[in-house]
Every structure is written in structure tokens, then in C-alpha cells.
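FORM 7B: Structural annotation worksheet

SECTION A. Query
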Amino acid sequence: MSLETYAVAADLYLARGQDVNSSRPAFTGDAFAGVPIPGVQDGGMAIIVAHPCTMRGPEARTRERVLVAAVREHSPIGREAWARGYYGLMPLPELINGNLHVGQFDELGKALSADLTTDKRVACLSEYGVNLLQQRLIWHLTRLEVETFRIQEAFAHTFEEADLLEEWTETLFASGVSPTDAAASFEAFIRVDHGNGRTLQ
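SECTION B. Predicted structure
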């Protein structure tokens, strides 16, 4: 058994700290501070492990609760060790202040989406980071090894949709439209039936 690992910490992140775009929709692999998880923690950090489609209901509105994993600071673990162990953890190297944090798959729960706000978001994973998160979670839950390129094939359209929604929200927000209403209008636009059930989505 050998899972994949990262070459450098930056490979795992789309953005951290002040570089996180507040117009980007909440997405798999986003890490937040100050998140209570019933039965798991009263506060602390958490990372979204839910698929974007399961996070949202009608009009792309985030559901009341979202599946997350607790995030804890951890003593150093060598990069290569992740390929052959620590399967119940997601490595988040240099997440804050250069320190290693880990997502803990044994500490899953549903956090209120109201606690997953942009002002609390500390990082967004890159596409590879999200794929690695899912690879490790799949292995932890099922003992099935799925290569990250297979996950990318299945997930690529959701990355593209998130990028488009980020641009859409940024543009409309500048015109005074709320992010929630921007997401709803984007959802309506891409789901218009162009005949025979064909949509832009």
C-alpha cells in the first residue's frame, strides 16, 4: 500500500491567509478557524471534506450543516512518510506559521455552515491538495486505493465550476449583489435547459 504525497508544501494550497479570495465559494479542502463540531470540538480549526454537490441545496445555497474534519497542530512528519502511513490524517504542512497541521478523519462531524464564513477561512487547497485529501479519505473509509489522477478525472468539472463562480461572484459583488444571490443567479444560468436536457453545467 502506498498513497501519494506532496513534493513541497505549496503544492497543496491554492491560497493561504490573506491570499484567500473572499469571493471564492466554500469548497472541499477549505480550512477554517473557530469552528464548533458537535460531539468533536467546541472550537478550533476544521477542514471541509464534503463534496461541493452535497454541500449545497436549491439555488446553490449552502446547506445548514456541512461535513468537516477537525484540524489539529501536529509534531513534524517527514514528507515521504505520508505515502506509507498516517492514513487517518490529511497533511497540512506550513498551514499556519510554518507548522504542520493535520485533518483528522477520525474526528468528523457536521458543522453549521454559518460557522464557515469567509472571515474565518485560513486556506483553500489546490486541485492536487483536494485530490490528495479525497484519496486519503477514501482509503481511510474503504481501504480502496484510488490514484489522484482518477479523482481528478471525476472532479475536474467541479474545480472549473468553482473558478467560474468565483469570477461571477466577484463581478456581481462589485455591483452590490450579495455572494448568496450571486451564487443563486450563477446556478440558474448554468442549469438553463438548452434542449434535450442539455445545460451548461
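SECTION C. Observations
The radius of gyration is 17 Å. The longest helix spans residues 148-173.

SECTION D. Sign-off
Analyst initials: ____
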